Amino acid sequence: MTTLDPMLAMMLAAHGIEITTTQRHALVEYAQRVAHEIATRSGGDATSDDVAVEMEARGFRYADLGNAAGAIFRHGWEWTGAVTRSQRPSSHGRLIRIWRRRDA
Fold first, then answer.
1. DSSP at 82
2. pLDDT given at position 21
3. What is the C-alpha to C-alpha distance for residues 62 and 55, in angstroms, rounded to an integer?
């Protein structure tokens, strides 16, 4: 039987992001800069899809971030409360958050 433990699940997710962020530090920082540039152009908002498209256009593979992609909007961003369906085929149309720069 599967036991549900939301606190443990959140702790494990945060731990996983920390580990992969450390391993992919330079790529995460680059993705964060890309997100900031996108937000500057778009009035303050960005999504993970926006970052993925821009990184691919610049010759980087967004998929190389792995779980560290969860750290892109960790600092300096706030969730707008809105979501949209991802357009990336690998995301299977799942809902993704729309983020806003806190200083926007």
1. E
2. 61
3. 6
What residue ranges do the domains of the chain occupy? Answer: 6-101
Nearest Cα to Cα of residue 95 among 53, 52, 48: 48
Residue 56 has φ and ψ, to the nearest 5°, of: -60, -40
Question: What is the average pLDDT across 1-11?
Answer: 78
Q: What type of residue is 29?
A: E
Fold classification of 6-101 is Arc Repressor Mutant, subunit A (1.10.10)
Q: Looking at the chain, how many residues does it have?
A: 104
Q: How far apart are CA 84 and CA 49, in angstroms?
A: 10
- Reported as a single tens digit per residue, the pLDDT across 61-77 is 999 998 889 899 999 99
Residues 6 or more apart whose CB falls under 8 angstroms from that of 44 comprise: 100, 101, 104
Task: Identify which of 40, 23, 4, 62 has the alpha carbon closest to the alpha carbon of residue 12.
Answer: 4
